[in-house]
Amino acid sequence: EPGFAGRTERLASPATIAMAVRARALRAQGHQVLSLALGEPDFATPPAVIEAAHRAALDGQTKYPPVDGTPALKAAIARKFARENGLTYAPAELMVSNGGKQVIFNAFMATIDAGDEIVIPAPYWVSYPLAARLFGGVPVFADCREEDGFRLSAAALEAAITPRTRWVVLNFPSNPTGAVMTLADLEAIADVLRRHPRIWILSDEIYEHLVFDGARHHSIAAVAPDLTSRVLTLNGVSKSYAMTGWRVGYAGGPERLIRMMTRVQGNATSGVCSISQAAAAAALDGPAELIAEMRDTYARRRTMVVEALRAIPGVTCAMPQGAFYAYPGIAACLGRTSRGGRMLTTDEDFALALLDEQHVACVHGSAFGKGPYLRLSCATDDETLREACARIAAFVDGLV
Ligand code: PLP
């Protein structure tokens, strides 16, 4: 039969999606499955944003848009970066893609040759190593320790850099740990990066608005303006505005990198859906209170979940300062057997047995490069979260 390209061997399906598929199969069998596996806001897109999309479609904004984004959205993005991040980008330094995911794909395709190393703080969002490998890149992980609040230390970064390093990825607030870097943390990271002038820096700031307890998000390009000629600042409307399905992400960066990324995208998908771009512009220019409301809800849920998890003997849990995940440690649960007779050797065994026996879907930490932990998404309603924690407690209680 016709075969596949060699590179597809490196094209694994993310564990997050695999877990969601398995949960769906159990649900189809009639089980009431609680899904904490996906990082998808449970809020609806703000009505004013939907109305802007409707108006754009009726106004005839239904033709091919420019590959790098509509002038109106790029202007809104420039205002957003200036207002919220203290960053100044000219139109030629901005581009719009089909989600933040395509920003990463464009950037890596434009820059990575076989054997190039991509430094990724671990635990990490799965798409960075998967995209890097697709282009022949070699992920190198910089460990973020729980004792450090899962923040990246300058020492861990320095140790991961070699003459082959092409990119350093920063993702704070972090998916999956919710870690937020302080200003001092970022200054120390900038000092390391200054010593390595041939490295691109990807700062994925998609969770920037979801920071709690007075924590503040800082953009590396604003903390270290002398690095901006190498920094690609990634953001998008998926998480901040509950717009995952609209597929709008964007990036600011040096003109020559943006130009090459635009060329990549022009050969793949062309410009992002014109109607979605009009919606995203309305979201970025819209009232900030909507974001604050969602943020406060996530903060409250996070506290509820972390406290419920901490009450379970054998489970530990750091209090995340951002994003919408909890990342409990389950080391004390391993080496034991579940009520259903499953031996739990790894956190993946735990997650699979929890799904099969208690119908709670989450993702094991080792899928994000650091076990034994679980990642629970708190982007769902209180009742589901409460019930999920009760089922996890029951599952752990049944271990012998
Ligand atoms: N970056 C991080 C850390 C994410 O968790 C996600 C989504 O899960 C994205 C980027 C990309 O989101 P989108 O492609 O919807 O913009």
UniProtKB/TrEMBL annotation:
EC number(s) reported in the record: 2.6.1.-
PROSITE patterns (alphabetical): AA_TRANSFER_CLASS_1 (PS00105)
Gene3D superfamilies: Aspartate Aminotransferase, domain 1, Type I PLP-dependent aspartate aminotransferase-like (Major domain)
UniProt keyword Transferase, yes or no: yes
UniProt keyword annotations, A-Z: Aminotransferase, Pyridoxal phosphate, Transferase
GO MF, one annotated term: L-aspartate:2-oxoglutarate aminotransferase activity
Transmembrane segments: none
Keyword NADP annotated: no
Name of the molecule in the record: Aminotransferase
The organism of origin for this protein: Gluconacetobacter johannae
Lineage of the species this protein comes from: Bacteria, Pseudomonadati, Pseudomonadota, Alphaproteobacteria, Acetobacterales
